[in-house]
Write a structure and sequence with these properties.
heterodimer; A: 262 residues; alpha/beta; 6-stranded mixed β-sheet; 5-stranded antiparallel β-sheet; 33% helix; 24% strand; globular; B: 226 residues; mainly alpha; 8 helices; elongated
């Protein structure tokens, strides 16, 4: 992707719809995601949070019959444009999933492998160390680099996945419930790590845990199924996190964040 | 979905705040009544009851802390609970003013009142009445009512001004009356402060309902310029 001009936002969506066949899972999303901030997407189950997140790196392409309308602008270009290579898009956007999914390889190889196939030609040892430091894991694993990643705890595995992501130096990191399978201490580590990561990356996180959204994010997008019973999700309120949790404008946001929805 | 447990706990806190408010109201009226009648026993009772007011305030504060820690309130709930913290502190201070008035009655000993009390009981009545309505507005989250009450502070200020001028006249006519005049001036000052603090409660009510902090204008600043 070429830089035509320096865009103001990390991601900007214009009238974005995501369809599965004839069903619009996500409708009419117009978001401007700030660079180097943490943006949380919250909302009840089935409202399209993960679908929207996956639209940002064209992960939905893997779902047969799925397509989008509207635009997702990154670096000033629509990532769904006809001349865009989805693999190239994903290279700029890392993703961390709910369940840690390291490769069944050594800790070292977990980081080196992705970098190698992405054509990394520099000093691999340095890259591994930098990435592990960036994910706040280095001190715990520096003497275990040859060990299989599966021997790490769940929280360590998740940080390894984050290290693997930052090794390819993306602009944006998408996190889909990154701490929901972790214990409270590991969760706290990931949350603290996000504050470090946002100095260099734009982070978008989907979470069911409202307190987590309140703690870690700068902006919050509240999603909800549309009223008309269409079962299509949309962003009903998007604002600074401090506003969403102290004085939301939409009654449905108020009901959700005060725990009166559902 | 209704958060039954949480909602009933919020209701309990609001009831407790109201109860604290009525204790304070009672103390304000009672302290002036006792002074007017030079009833030492009644003033002693007011002073003892101030301990109950303080205890109640701490109990509510504790209840609020537990609710915040265990229920993680957000949005309106958060504004309400945080504001209750502020309101109970205002109420407790108003209780202290009543205690101060009771204390003056005790310190006056055998000295008679400089003059029969007329405007001072009016100030107490007006302040207590404003407090009563401010707490109703708080419970009902009635923004219009909350915005209307602080203006009435002008009446209390006018009475205070009147008391002040009257007492100055006594002092000028007979400098030996300074101490007795000063006692009454202090009483009037305490009552003037009560009305000011009612304004703070009204501002909290507006904040709970709207999420906006706004200072409700009273002409208090101008009063001090006079």
């Amino acid at each position: 992707m070429q830089n035509t001009q320096i865009p103001e936002y990390a991601i900007e969506t214009k009238n974005l719809f995501v369809f599965y066949g004839s069903f619009a899972a996500v409708s009419e999303v117009n978001l401007k995601i700030e660079k180097q901030k943490v943006t949380a997407i919250i909302g009840p189950s089935g409202c399209g949070k993960s679908t929207l997140l996956r639209a940002f790196n064209r992960m939905n392409d893997f779902v047969p019959s799925s397509y989008v309308t509207g635009e997702v602008l990154m670096r000033g270009q629509n990532i769904y444009g006809s001349n865009i290579d989805p693999v190239e898009v994903r290279r700029n956007i890392g993703m961390v999933f709910q369940k840690p999914n390291p490769f069944p390889k050594s800790i070292y190889e977990n980081i080196a492998w992705g970098a190698r196939i992405n054509g990394f030609k520099g000093n691999m040892d340095e890259l591994v160390e930098q990435s592990l430091r960036g994910a706040a894991l280095w001190e715990e694993v520096k003497d275990l680099l040859k060990k299989n990643a599966y021997e790490l705890s769940g929280g360590q595995q998740q940080r390894l996945c984050i290290a693997r992501t930052i090794a390819i130096q993306p602009d944006i990191i998408l996190m889909d419930e990154p701490a929901s399978a972790l214990d409270p201490i590991s969760t706290l580590r990931i949350e603290e790590l996000m504050q470090e990561l946002k100095k260099n990356y734009t982070i978008i996180i989907v979470t069911h845990n409202m307190q987590q959204a309140a703690r870690v994010s700068d902006y919050t997008a509240m999603m909800m199924l549309e009223k008309d019973g269409s079962r299509s999700g949309t962003v009903i309120e998007f604002s600074e996190t401090k506003k969403i949790f102290t004085n939301p404008k939409d009654k449905r946001t108020e009901d959700y964040v005060t725990g009166r929805f559902g | 979905m209704i958060r039954k447990t949480f909602e009933s706990e919020i209701q309990q806190v609001k009831d407790e705040v109201l109860l604290l408010g009525s204790m304070v109201e009672h103390a304000i009226i009672g302290s002036v009544e006792a002074l007017k009648k030079r009833d030492i026993k009644a003033s002693e009772k007011i002073m003892a009851e101030d301990n109950e007011i303080n205890k109640k305030r701490f109990a509510i504060e504790n209840q609020l802390m537990i609710l915040i820690a265990t229920q993680q309130p957000m949005a309106h709930d958060l504004r309400l609970l945080a504001s209750c913290m502020e309101i109970i502190s205002e109420l407790e201070r108003m209780g202290d003013y009543a205690k101060g008035i009771a204390n003056i009655n005790l310190r006056m000993g055998e000295e008679p009142l400089l003059k029969p009390l007329i405007d001072i009981p009016r100030m107490a009545q007006k302040g207590a009445d404003m407090l009563h309505r401010a707490l109703s507005a708080f419970i009902n989250e009635d923004v219009e009512a909350a915005k209307g009450i602080p203006v009435e502070d002008d009446e209390v200020d006018a009475l205070y001004n009147q008391v002040y001028r009257e007492l100055m006249t006594f002092i000028i006519q007979d400098p030996k009356s300074i101490e007795r005049a000063n006692w009454l001036l202090w009483v009037a000052h305490n009552l003037e402060r009560v009305a000011d603090r009612v304004t703070n409660i009204c501002e909290r009510t507006v904040f709970i309902a709207t999420g906006e902090f706004s200072e409700i204008k009273s002409s208090d600043d101008e009063f001090w310029k006079k």
